[in-house]
Design brief:
The chain has about 170 residues and is of the alpha+beta class. Helix content is about 30%, strand content about 30%. It is built from three helices and seven strands; from the N terminus they run H-E-E-E-E-E-E-E-H-H. The protein is globular, with a radius of gyration of 15 Å. It binds ligand GNR and nickel (II) ion.
């Protein structure tokens, strides 16, 4: 197990597009386990491989209060969406920024699990929000892209300042 380094906005590597996982190997399972450990340690409720600089379509999620419900989704896709829901989002790659984003409220998801089996399930509420947020990462998209230019610039300037202080 290992804690991985999480990239921070505006790192251009967060704009990379992730490629489909061709086969669920032990290496992929190891990456998923390291991502779960990294997510729990952060702490967060989701993490996409792009955030740890791996260009593969792999996300992990756990919205439980007690780390009891880890979900590993490989090549996840939203195949149906209904309704709208606004939720105050945050992102481990955009520390200390929280803003409302509107997304579908109910989705049908297709993915591959850690055993390499296809699966399909329905998600709603927080889980639906989180899955859409993570799939956006795989396409190089961040929640700040849904905000006004002004809000996004403010967030970017604040994070750039923090990063300079660390150098
Ligand atoms: O930990 C996280 N919390 C969160 C809250 C509202 C909407 C989405 C999220 S995902 C985020 C972790 C993260 O950055 N995943 O990419
Ligand atoms: Ni995020």
């Amino acid at each position: 197990m290992a804690i991985l380094n999480i990239l921070h906005y505006p790192d251009p590597r967060l704009r990379n597009k992730a490629l489909p996982v061709e086969a669920v190997t032990d290496d992929i399972r190891q990456l998923a386990d390291d991502m779960l450990e990294t997510m729990y340690e952060a702490p967060g409720i989701g993490l996409a491989a792009i955030q740890v600089n791996v260009q593969k379509r792999l996300i992990v999620i756990d919205i439980s209060e007690d780390k009891s419900d880890p979900l590993i989704l490989i090549n996840p896709e939203v195949i149906a969406a209904e309704g709208e829901r606004e939720f105050e989002e945050g992102c481990l790659s955009v520390p200390e920024a929280y803003e409302a984003v509107t997304r579908a409220d109910r989705i049908k998801v297709k993915a591959i699990n850690r055993d390499g089996d296809n699966m399909e399930f329905d998600a709603e509420g927080l889980l639906a929000t989180c899955i859409q947020h993570e799939i956006d990462h795989l396409d190089g998209k961040l929640f700040v892209d849904y905000l006004s230019n002004l809000k996004r610039q403010r967030i970017r300037k604040k994070l750039e300042k923090h990063q300079k202080q660390k150098l």
